[in-house]
Amino acid sequence: MKKFLALGLCAMMAVTTFVSCGSSDSGSGEGPTGDITVVSREEGSGTRGAFVELMGVMDEEENDITTQNAEVTNSTSVMMQTVAGNDAAIGYVSLGSLSDDVKALKVDGVEATVDNVKSGDYKVARPFNIVKGKNVSELAQDFEKYIMSEEGQATVAEEGYIREDNTEEYTASGLSGKITLAGSTSVAPVMEVLAEGYKALNPDVEIEIQQTGSGAGIESAIAGTCDLGMSSRALTEDELAQGLTVTEIATDGIAVIVNNNNTIEDLTTDIIGQIFKGEITTWDEVTK
């Protein structure tokens, strides 16, 4: 039924915004027209940091040069809602957070799938990290041990991310107390599932997860106001110099997303970069 509804919407939009359903790089058929609505994450977002680096949305001094005309969203869920509600929109989200509410584009001819990230064919990928300051509690260390165990990494894979290998079985510690995590809104969903698994084995533990963005999570780890920071980007040399320790808990792809009514299926890295830099501003330029 959803398929028929989607086809009906595509047909209705043909007279105004979209005409026929063809791939932008196939050289045949027509695609969307009109202005592009660029949707980006906020500054400090790990997803944004990784995306602009991977797509070349940076100047020679490696500064983020995302177009000033971009609509800025402050979380993965808001990004999805924004693109799902705007036929002209293009954005990006964690592959593990992707849903049928939007369409993931192929990038350079490669689908955004876990298998393609794992094989290295899909290049738009980044690490999921937990970040520890100089003083880490025994309880926080035990939670990290669970995350990196066979049980924890099985959960990572079940949630649609690339797991780490060479893991060991976890044994419940019997510890009690509270762990506070802060940071990436992309890491948070899988961390919530991991927290539930850990608490099932250690029922006297409370885990609070604050979704504040990667940059804020790293700052909290430096300041010692959280037990573990969550980051969906690599740390800078300046951040590492603050005495932080980083553990990569998973690898995640970044899906480039458009509205389900958009007829484009595939874009090159170069075109995506130009769109987010504001050098390409209309869908006509993409499909001509």
From TrEMBL:
Which residues, if any, are the signal sequence?
Answer: 1-21
InterPro entries under this entry? Answer: PBP_domain, Phosphate_ABC_transporter
Asked if the keyword S-adenosyl-L-methionine belongs to this entry, the reply reads: no
- Where does the UniProt entry say this protein principally localizes? membrane
| PBP domain span | 30-151, 173-285
Family to which the UniProt record says this protein belongs: Belongs to the PstS family.
Q: Which proteins does it associate with, and in what oligomeric form? A: The complex is composed of two ATP-binding proteins (PstB), two transmembrane proteins (PstC and PstA) and a solute-binding protein (PstS).
Q: What is this protein called?
A: Extracellular solute-binding protein
Provenance organism: Gallibacter intestinalis
